[in-house]
Amino acid sequence: MNRSELVAALADRAEVTRKDADAVLAAFAEITGDVVAKGDEKVTVPGFLTFERTHRAAREGRNPASGEPMTIPAGYSVKVSAGSKLKEAAKGK
Which of 20, 21, 27, 78 has the fewest C-beta atoms lying within 10 Å of its C-beta? Predict the structure, then answer.
């Protein structure tokens, strides 16, 4: 399902216009991005998904082209965890 299909499904399910559904989806994505960028809290949609920023420590790796050892710097990543309702849906229940 791509974005336009998701917007159409949201509009039909919520009985709103596609423009309104698209605005809500865009706002959700923007707010989630802002909260994750700050890193001091996580976004949770109960039973569905949790988004949070995680810290990755520096580590040793290898350059795949030359095989030379290299240091991969510390950084941040995003962790997305499935909630219980989403896990049950994936099982087909």
Answer: 27
